[in-house]
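User: quick one, fold this
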Amino acid sequence: MTRSTLTTPPPGAQAPTAHPDGPPPGGSLGSHFSRCFGCGADHPTGLHITAVTPDGTSVEATFTVGESHQGAPGLAHGGVLAAAMDEVIGMSIWLLRRPYVTARLETDYLLPVPVGTTLHLRAWCTGIRGRKAYLEAEGRMGAPDGPVAVRAAALFIEVDMTHFAEHGDLPALRAEHQDYEVNP
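Assistant:
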């Protein structure tokens, strides 16, 4: 994958370290919002991605392409695959225990992904500088060492929790994120 300069860490970017309050190696990552299209258990047609961290700084997950995720008959919709990459990248940056949002997502589609395929997703941060985090991900078909079907590179920007209060659903945020103080 050839990344743009917008998703390539600049000189001086620092590699992340595991956060002391993050899940331990092998620990599961919970959903950040129960109705999230990517990870929410309560979203009826969502991706329902669940993930673990092998080392406290990267994420491994699986996603099985269902009937409601197809574009062309029998194949995963490219936008759904991009959403899966965005979700697993977002899960990896969540390990830093600071709120980030996607600023740019570059996705390369290498192989068609049939409905019923389980993608093994992996995401990691390649560097942080200031409020910017640079991340990558890949999705492999059928097994963690299977053929790479999709790759992504992203730029995420750290925001204050008031971002979500100002632009989203404040009561839902308060209901599911009691560990954050939100003062709009």
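User: anything notable?
Assistant: The longest helix spans residues 78-94.
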